TrEMBL record:
Domain Acyl-CoA dehydrogenase/oxidase N-terminal: residue ranges: 22-71
Keyword Transmembrane: no
Official protein name in the record: Acyl-CoA dehydrogenase
UniProt organism field: Nonomuraea solani
Domain Acyl-CoA dehydrogenase/oxidase C-terminal: 187-293
Length: 314
């Protein structure tokens, strides 16, 4: 499995791969770059990397609006499997042989009666295997029915999962679910930074090319201020995402700030582009759609701040 030690080198490898092979399936990505096993310990066939490498990869995936299941499978499912000691699952995830998604407490109305799982998860990230926190346990279960949603952001597939007296395979207890959630929020924040950075780059490129009154629009003070504010927003978001390593407080900060920064960057990118920015021919609208869907993925910014308030104010 290819290993790259430094986050900046890893970032360059992932960006080059996504540029050269944007349609490559997850299994090829896992085989060629080793991305599926990034956080998997080396004894289980992974790279044994940490939060810095995770953030570098997630940022590049967000920049490219990649549909790869890195967030749910290589981050959340890997952390859940690692915490439960499911070595067989870690090995399968590291190889890219299977993808997985995780249903956290509160994601749906689920009931574990003995070894049978019943209930519905209305919105779940796509994954072949389903890991569920229910009844004080972490279990693996095969849904009775999967219904794909038609979403605003088609690059992030969502499903409705139904379980009707489904036998489960116990993996461990539910003590790891908060860590899995916060690590997922941290990875999502890094993705949002990547998307916001690309929005800034597109806006700057357009401001240099587009001319009005014989001058590039980037020379006008209003556009200069808009781009300067965006740069400050993106760099602040990058700092917030970099500090969110799965800790509940810093994850809540990143979840709130990076979500709103991405929404602002995507919106301002369209404003700088003007009419072309809202056409199907230009990719600007795709970043706004991803930013909008990301804002609801774990919970909206207001909910992150409410969770943070309990730590700040006691």
């Amino acid at each position: 499995m290819p290993l790259v030690a430094l986050p900046d080198e890893l970032r360059a490898v992932v960006r080059a791969y996504l540029t050269d092979r944007p349609e490559a399936p997850w299994q090829s990505f896992a085989r060629d770059v080793g991305i599926a096993g990034l956080l998997v310990p080396e004894e289980h066939g992974g790279a044994g990397c940490g939060p810095a490498e995770m953030a570098a990869v997630a940022e590049e995936l967000g920049r490219a609006l990649s549909p790869h299941p890195f967030l749910q499978s290589a981050v959340m499912a890997v952390e859940a499997a690692r915490a439960s000691g499911a070595g067989w699952l870690l090995e399968a995830l590291a190889e890219g042989a299977v993808t997985a998604t995780v249903a956290l407490p509160g994601d749906g109305d689920l009931r574990l009666d003995g070894k049978l799982l019943t209930g519905v998860v209305p919105y779940a990230l796509a994954g072949e295997m389903v890991l569920v926190y229910a009844g004080g346990l972490l279990v693996e279960a095969v849904p009775t029915r999967r219904v794909p949603h038609r979403t605003v952001d088609e690059s992030r597939p969502l499903q409705e999962l139904t379980f009707q007296d489904v036998p489960v395979r116990q993996l461990g207890d539910d003590s790891s679910w908060a860590r899995v959630r916060d690590l997922g929020i941290a990875a999502l924040a890094a993705e949002q930074v990547g998307g916001a950075q690309r929005c800034l780059e597109m806006a700057v490129e357009h401001a240099g090319r587009r001319h009005q009154f014989g001058r590039p629009i980037g020379s006008f003070q209003a556009i200069k201020h808009k781009l300067a504010d965006l740069l400050l927003l993106v760099e602040s978001a990058r700092s917030a995402a970099g500090a969110a390593t799965g800790d509940e407080v810093f994850a809540a900060i990143a979840g709130s700030y990076c979500t709103e920064a991405y929404l602002a960057a995507a919106g301002e990118n369209i404003q700088v582009h003007g009419g072309i920015g809202i056409t199907w021919e230009h990719p600007a609208h795709r970043y706004l759609k991803r930013a909008t869907s990301d804002a609801q993925l774990f919970c909206p910014p207001q909910a992150h701040r409410a969770r943070l308030a309990g730590h700040v104010f006691g």
